[in-house]
TrEMBL record:
Membrane topology annotation: Multi-pass membrane protein
One Gene Ontology cellular component: plasma membrane
PANTHER family: CARBOXYLIC ACID TRANSPORTER PROTEIN HOMOLOG
Matching Pfam families: MFS_1
Protein name, per record: Unannotated protein
Length: 353
């Protein structure tokens, strides 16, 4: 399913050409419909194919929402805007865990989970009528129409792309296995039942919403780099502790990891939309997502391989924590400070918009 990110890259390029609104609405509705196809699957090929396309479409939705938030919000509130969007997305993702309550109650009950997104289509259609195009994209399109000497697209700053790609790779190398192996870890190494896993995930991850909002506020006030580095370091430390703990320390460390780690999310997530011009913002962020997925895949393979050789998932997670440790240094000494600066100041190609 991770191969679908390549499709999302192509779709993101369309958002730079035809507008954020049109692509966002189309992908939002299509992702709900395509996900529902999984309920009718007769085998892994059908299920895998349908969800590959669904994942690609939903990836575009996530990226474009962040782009729209960055383009529309004032310079001093971009990280906070991203934090609010991230928090609501995390709430939706957390509710998906409730599917564990009924999926093993009857043969075929798992199909219900794939039908749930259909409930979102009507609200999306209502929203589409009131969703405007971003002012920056409209200004860019108008500028292209009136100035024939202006290039249709600006060049991507490859130095910035490489910087953010390295950061995304290192972060995903740890974050993906930390999330994906959690259910297996709780079930096989800590003896949790399906219902207890659902309770654990909701109870320990929900407080992370506090960290996301606080992180957005702090990143706008005190800067992206310091807040991002603190969030990464604290979140990773307590995540490793949770994977090496039993009983109530496991629960407490997981809560601390969720709250502190969440502080870094808005500080880092806003860099992608901020550091590229309007005409390349979607494509560049789609490319960064491809790199992040590569890091996720490598992280999953590495932890899976290490877990069989070092004594368990917890020990494997402690080893791959080297990646975010390096990321802290990258953020502090390589990333630029973008807080309270207009997008046009960060991207000279947009200054005439």
């Amino acid at each position: 399913m991770r191969v679908g990110v390549l499709l999302s890259l192509g779709i993101m390029a369309l958002a730079d050409k035809h507008g954020r609104r049109r692509v966002l609405v189309t992908c939002l509705i299509a992702s709900c419909a395509v996900t529902a196809l999984g309920a009718a699957s007769t085998g892994m090929i059908w299920l895998g194919t349908s969800q590959t396309f669904a994942r690609a479409l939903s990836t575009v939705v996530v990226i474009l929402i962040a782009v729209v938030a960055a383009e529309e919000m004032p310079a001093g509130t971009r990280a906070f805007a991203v934090s609010v969007v991230t928090m609501t997305a995390a709430l939706g993702a957390g509710l998906c865990v409730l599917n564990l309550v009924y999926v093993d109650t009857a043969l075929g009950a798992w199909r219900i989970a794939y039908l749930v997104p259909l409930l979102a289509i009507y609200p999306c259609l209502r929203m589409a009528r009131r969703l405007p195009e971003t002012k920056r994209f409209e200004s860019r399109r108008l500028r292209n129409a009136t100035d024939t000497n202006l290039p249709v697209t600006d060049r991507i700053n490859w130095h910035r792309f490489a910087m953010l790609a390295i950061g995304a790779f290192l972060w995903s190398l740890f974050l993906a296995p930390a999330a994906q192996f959690l259910n297996e870890f709780l079930r096989t190494e800590r003896g949790f039942s399906g219902i207890l896993i659902a309770v654990f995930v909701l109870a320990t991850n929900t407080p992370g919403g506090i960290g996301i909002v606080i992180g957005g506020k702090l990143a706008d006030k005190h800067g992206r780099r310091v807040i991002g580095a603190i969030g990464i370091a604290g979140g990773v430390l307590f995540t490793v502790i949770s994977y090496l703990s039993w009983g109530w320390p496991l629960w407490l460390a997981s809560v601390a990891a969720a709250v502190i780690g969440a502080i870094a999310i808005p500080a880092l997530a806003v860099y992608g939309p901020e550091l590229f011009p309007t005409s390349q913002r979607g494509t560049a962020n789609g490319g960064l997502q491809v790199v992040a997925v590569a890091g996720s895949s490598l992280g999953l393979l590495t932890v899976g391989w290490l877990a069989d050789r070092v004594g368990g998932i917890g020990q494997a997670m402690a080893i791959v924590a080297i990646a975010p440790a390096l990321l802290v240094l990258v953020v502090l000494f390589w990333f630029p400070e973008t807080a309270r600066r207009e997008l046009e100041d960060l991207n000279p190609a947009d200054q005439a918009i």
